[in-house]
Specification:
binds adenosine monophosphate, 11 helices, homotetramer, alpha/beta, UDP-N-acetylmuramoyl-L-alanine:D-glutamate ligase, binds magnesium ion, 10 strands, about 45% helix
Chain lengths: ~280, ~280, ~280, ~280
Amino acid sequence: STWKVWTEEDVARTLPKRDGNVHKGTYGTGLLVAGSDDMPGSAALAAIGAMRMGIGKLSVFTESGAKNVIAALVPEATYIQRDFSKKIGDLGQKFAGIAIGPGIEPNEAFEAFIAAAFQEPLPVVLDAGALSKRTYPKRTAPVIVTPHPGEFSRMIDIPSKTIAADRIRLASAYAREQGVVVVLKGQYTVIAFPDGSGIVNPTGNGSLAKGGSGDTLTGMLLANICTHDNIKEAVANAVYIHGACADLWIRENGAATLTAHDFSQLLPRVMHKLEKLCVN
Amino acid sequence: STWKVWTEEDVARTLPKRDGNVHKGTYGTGLLVAGSDDMPGSAALAAIGAMRMGIGKLSVFTESGAKNVIAALVPEATYIQRDFSKKIGDLGQKFAGIAIGPGIEPNEAFEAFIAAAFQEPLPVVLDAGALSKRTYPKRTAPVIVTPHPGEFSRMIDIPSKTIAADRIRLASAYAREQGVVVVLKGQYTVIAFPDGSGIVNPTGNGSLAKGGSGDTLTGMLLANICTHDNIKEAVANAVYIHGACADLWIRENGAATLTAHDFSQLLPRVMHKLEKLCVN
Amino acid sequence: STWKVWTEEDVARTLPKRDGNVHKGTYGTGLLVAGSDDMPGSAALAAIGAMRMGIGKLSVFTESGAKNVIAALVPEATYIQRDFSKKIGDLGQKFAGIAIGPGIEPNEAFEAFIAAAFQEPLPVVLDAGALSKRTYPKRTAPVIVTPHPGEFSRMIDIPSKTIAADRIRLASAYAREQGVVVVLKGQYTVIAFPDGSGIVNPTGNGSLAKGGSGDTLTGMLLANICTHDNIKEAVANAVYIHGACADLWIRENGAATLTAHDFSQLLPRVMHKLEKLCVN
Amino acid sequence: STWKVWTEEDVARTLPKRDGNVHKGTYGTGLLVAGSDDMPGSAALAAIGAMRMGIGKLSVFTESGAKNVIAALVPEATYIQRDFSKKIGDLGQKFAGIAIGPGIEPNEAFEAFIAAAFQEPLPVVLDAGALSKRTYPKRTAPVIVTPHPGEFSRMIDIPSKTIAADRIRLASAYAREQGVVVVLKGQYTVIAFPDGSGIVNPTGNGSLAKGGSGDTLTGMLLANICTHDNIKEAVANAVYIHGACADLWIRENGAATLTAHDFSQLLPRVMHKLEKLCVN
Ligand SMILES: Nc1ncnc2c1ncn2[C@@H]1O[C@H](COP(=O)(O)O)[C@@H](O)[C@H]1O
Ligand SMILES: Nc1ncnc2c1ncn2[C@@H]1O[C@H](COP(=O)(O)O)[C@@H](O)[C@H]1O
Ligand SMILES: Nc1ncnc2c1ncn2[C@@H]1O[C@H](COP(=O)(O)O)[C@@H](O)[C@H]1O
Ligand SMILES: Nc1ncnc2c1ncn2[C@@H]1O[C@H](COP(=O)(O)O)[C@@H](O)[C@H]1O
Ligand SMILES: [Mg+2]
Ligand SMILES: [Mg+2]
Ligand SMILES: [Mg+2]
Ligand SMILES: [Mg+2]
């Protein structure tokens, strides 16, 4: 099984074109399960990522306190009042993909919600509060988990330091055993696929080392699983482009000063450059 | 009856000048009936469209949850607490035009509100939640309906696919039979008038294929029916300029990345270019 | 008594310098009485005007629904919960100036509040909801009223059309009889002083003919009465600079597209140009 | 003991680099105790300062009314519902530093909270409402107080005028006697250390003489005590960079027009210039 470094050429080769006789239905509706009264912004940052990466429509399943925060930054999103006891079957058929976790403190009802989501035939991204030590049911639609080393440590019960020394092997083992895509974040993010193949991401820098960066990536992943045909390309492009935004930032700004909501301005410019390289 | 493609020259010829001894009363007050607690942003996006296109004043009839979302983006708007049982006669005389529908789930009280609005002698724009299978009373002030193909399908009980293959004929038939202006949205938006004439719009691109785009257009139409003398020009210019904003966007940014609230920055630039071409 | 057209040279000659061993106390604290649950944005627009023009501190006396709207745009402001029965004496000594009216529906308690404000030894700006047919008590600190022709018509019981034909004479008569400064707004705003002298303002254009423009001017006036020594210069400079922002806008943007919150970006640039011309 | 003027070279020499295999944990989590229902913006301004200066994560301990205001400007922050009777021990171990005071009216519970914070082994910044006449317990982690002359006058019971004439001596005396770092703000801010040494800051100008400026500095100090190893450099750099932002502002904008939330745009540019000078 092959591992490769994802490059600008790979992005240019695999980025979907957005033209011709398309409409918002062409790009699917995503469900974002994120944000809470005490962590409202995380949902807004993920929503920025999803909308700017090109999702067709975005619905946010969140607590009421998070709504205005999201809406001020992403007025294009709509809302579903959070109630984790709500039957996910009511939600499942309307969406092309679902991302779960930023800004959520896990509890039992939330775990049941995640379990129900797994029963739906749609790709699932799990991040932050949705990451824990668990097994995954057999399903055809992909599951993508996006831990940083600290979160991965909790998921596999191995100290962060051990993980740091062995990122590719550990991520790949988990991906193969659990049948999920692992995005092990950090400098040179590792993406491991269930078939044993994988990708190392060359973009990004220390400006991303700040609360909120990962939330935006989760939203970008949600958009990409809704707009790409190929799941590997969907994930690799999201991770690459996320880092490329940070690389653009530090060419013009102090590395300590990036905040995740700056992606709203960075993504249009980074995507423009990449779309112009597109050959497909 | 004639059909034509609307061009930059047509816009330059028909755009009202904004100078001399004018005041906000010169440009009329619009009433925007849009937004709800779960879809607050749609009203904000329509309000952006209305204010940036030059309406004199804007009053938004909306649920309380939507107010702060609108106000943060469009502090120039004022509010009327939504109550669809409120007599529309209380509202009707104060306004130069009314747009109804973005971000509203239809119900009986809402239908009654629309029916009452039709009794008022002012132009009415219907979009989104206000679009349904209905007939329209005889009236002198124009009605403009702005469906995308999915919405038009529900309005005329014909599958979207059939509509896609026959957009001009079907839009024009509806416009003539119902006596309304039909803006059938999508690539090459079709505008059909009750007299059988019509316009095809050449601007716009796939960057508009995202939730929220249509809401902004509705606000732009509201502004134009309040500021143009000629209803055909009012509608054609709004549609043309809406698409031209997207065309400007993709010259500088990734096509996947446009969000509807970017129109707040795009409209001033696009209008500047067009106003400079003005010969009237 | 002399009337003159205020020019860029006049501004350059009279604009206070902001340097040296100054602190926020040097520029005074203003009290803005504006905004309501249904018109929250007007207070935000006035607050933008006040802060950008250089007030030292700004306190806003407003309804709770307006607070978040203001704070999102002007986080530098602080709040006093509106209660018009509150003794103005509690407020009066802390402030260098007070502006009253944008976004307020007048009622009896509000009238009493205005009457109490007149008893305080500080300059008062009255706009919008605070403008009505009234007489003014004898006081040493100036009163500035800022009607547009429709509001002036209500204040002096003369039809708008008659006013339009005779702006300077009517404004000046009111100023002399009532002992207040009259800012009669519109194209070529007229500023009439109690001593019979006056100013005609050459800046501004039709882009200002939109709801919200006047609210920003009220905030700018509040700042200027707190930061200038000379009341005539304070008023003339605010009016001149307000129009100059609109003149800058239309050099770069469509004239129909200006919104009042754009002053937040325009004032820093316009003031930069004017401060560089400063000779004092 | 030495006193020196802090220079651009000093900043370039002491600014931490942000690259390599870092993550948000590398830069620590700060606790900001600021903002209230009537002064919500002060917390937002401090949060802007902290995030833009490079803190790893920021948690804001505030009243519920301040949350949405902060979140709209700094969606990267998270919240803890303010309750000053909450045991600080619950908070103390999670944080690398704590800043207390902007937008808070002091009361008994608040004083007890500050006293409890002093028991925790983490650096403490006190500003605004947290500044009063007090003594400080012996502790190893530094305390930084940031009064303007009016606040320092209350702290040491000496009239502002007397302070103005003797800033370095009085600040240094307090620093040595109380064992705290004193940032005596104003033109040429004086920074006095407990060991008798000190710094005079050459940056900044009258554009900072406006409500809100100090709040942003408090946030910048919070970030710096979390990201620098050396407390003197942490404080000196925050003060220098704060003033440098104002110096950049007036090169491009009117000096009267700066508002504290503009630091969100200024800090990335100022930091970029300084980081490029870095030799470490
Ligand atoms: N030093 C670094 N170099 C490159 N990427 C980083 C670095 N630190 C953090 N990131 C990225 O920033 C995001 C942090 O996610 P989170 O920890 O969930 O906020 C992930 O996408 C990381 O890959
Ligand atoms: N592929 C496309 N090309 C041009 N315009 C489009 C395209 N997709 C959507 N639009 C426009 O975007 C808006 C979408 O409206 P709505 O579906 O109500 O959000 C309409 O104005 C459409 O005409
Ligand atoms: N045609 C115009 N030319 C110049 N200034 C105008 C024009 N229309 C409105 N204004 C200004 O815009 C503001 C409108 O105030 P208001 O009517 O209270 O919103 C006042 O400052 C007017 O002087
Ligand atoms: N005239 C001035 N020159 C330089 N810095 C100033 C001046 N006035 C105020 N500042 C700075 O602005 C901030 C004001 O803090 P505060 O009074 O708490 O809002 C402090 O950092 C001061 O040092
Ligand atoms: Mg994360
Ligand atoms: Mg629509
Ligand atoms: Mg007005
Ligand atoms: Mg302060």
